Amino acid sequence: MVRSSDDNEKKSLVKKLKDVEISVPIVYGNVAFWLGKKASEYQSHKWTVYVRGATNEDLSVVVKRVVFQLHSSFNNPIRAVESPPFELSESGWGEFEIAITLHFHTDVSDKPLHLYHHLKLYPEDDSGSLSVKKPVVVESYDEVVFAEPSEGLFARVQNHPAVIVPRLPAGFSLPPVPAEDADKRKRVDPKDNPLTQWFTNFSEADELLKLAAARQQDCFEM
């Protein structure tokens, strides 16, 4: 009888929710500080590239690992970040494209998401002066949509601030969230990140309107 109950619970966790989508607004980009008097020919800036929640929520509820691929001139140009904050700091003098790959937890998706960000060290306006106090910040907003999540995943993320979930029909019963998953939510607070003061304040409503036409590109069929 115990074994049968366990089997039923496992089936409930993996059962798909038809015609349901959950979405995760994300922001990826970089913050670059000019080194001023400490700058040299090959070390003019210190910069950080990252992936974060739209208002800096902890993405580890869905993201397992983020891999950043830097220019080949860097030592170990492929860097994996296994826990939040999903960011990488380096120093250098040149701008280049960084490939960013998001790997998700197994109950979220087995398909990685590939993003590309052009590292910016200098202001867009050529007349803009460099400052050691005010960094160059370049960010992009996107929304990752997961179609037909499992009941277990929906239950796990339904109250998480990083995830947007629809309201289920009245009386619909979800499986309980394992205690270890509930505890994980309290371990990290990305809002303590010292870079937060420089992050762009994205308006979700405006950004979702911009993304409406391209939304299907990031939709994962599970």
TrEMBL record:
TM stretches of this protein: none
GO BP terms, alphabetized: regulation of DNA-templated transcription
Pfam families: YEATS (PF03366)
YEATS domain: residues covered: 16-160
PROSITE patterns assigned: YEATS
Matches recorded under Gene3D superfamilies: YEATS domain
Primary site of residence: nucleus
Keywords: Nucleus, Transcription, Transcription regulation
Domain of life of the source: Eukaryota
Gene Ontology cellular-component annotations: nucleus
Transcription regulation is among the record's keywords: yes
PANTHER family on file: PROTEIN AF-9 HOMOLOG
InterPro entries to which the protein is assigned, alphabetical: YEAST_sf, YEATS, YEATS_dom
Name this polypeptide is given: YEATS domain-containing protein
Lineage: Eukaryota, Viridiplantae, Streptophyta, Embryophyta, Tracheophyta
The keyword Lipoprotein is assigned to this record: no
Subcellular location: Nucleus
